[in-house]
Amino acid sequence: MAVNYVLVERGNPGDPKAPKKFYAQAKSSGELTLRKLSKEIAEGSTTVSDTDVLAVLNDLTKVLKRHLDDGRIVRFGDFGTFQITVSSDGAETADKFHSSLIKNPKVTFRPGVDLKETLATLKYAKV
User: Fold this and answer.
1) Coil, strand or helix: which one is 60?
2) Which residue from 2, 14, 74, 95 has the highest number of Cβ atoms inside 10 Å of its Cβ?
3) Helix/strand/coil percent split, the chain, to 5
4) CA end-to-end span of the chain
5) Using CA atoms, how far apart are residues 53 and 32, in angstroms rounded to an integer?
6) Contact 110, 76 (CB under 8 A)
7) Cβ neighbours for 109, distance < 8 A, ≥ 6 positions apart
8) DSSP secondary structure, 8-50, as one string
9) pTM for this structure?
10) pLDDT (0 to 100) of residue 2
């Protein structure tokens, strides 16, 4: 299976006079909801219902949020790792730095071994 992409023409924000270039942008082929994901997981098991799986995935979301709020890195085994990252404007000295300079908080996901292997073997198709 190939990852679909489209071409998007973009200018250089650092140099508005520079000629525009074309860049690849991944094009999704749909989405998978938590409910559909739970049904698919349950289909692979004879002992767990999709309702049970959905309940666990909902609790997983709540627990993940709580631990990220507490500043923890959450490792999901071979799946990957979630962590909050931030960037900030600089201050001339440490004493002049204050938390209002912090911006762009994000939840960063770093894939585990299996997903890294998937990324290394991707094929692409222009749509």
Assistant:
1) helix
2) 74
3) 30, 35, 35
4) 14
5) 15
6) no
7) 80, 81, 82
8) EEE-BTTBTTSPPEEEEEE-------HHHHHHHHHHT-SS--H
9) 0.74
10) 87
| Three-class DSSP category at 18 | coil
Strand stretches in the chain, DSSP E: 2-10, 21-26, 74-75, 80-88, 102-111, 123-126
pLDDT tens per residue, range 33-72: 999 999 999 999 878 999 999 999 999 999 999 999 999 9
pLDDT digits (tens, 9 = 90+) for 65-123: 999 999 999 999 899 999 999 999 999 999 999 999 999 999 999 999 999 999 999 99
Which conformational region is residue 77 in: left (phi greater than 0), alpha (psi within -120 to 50 degrees), or beta?
left
Separation CA 119–CA 85 (nearest Å): 22
CA-to-CA separations, 114 to 31, 46, 79, 99, 118, in angstroms, rounded: 21, 25, 7, 37, 6
Beta bridge partners of 75: 81
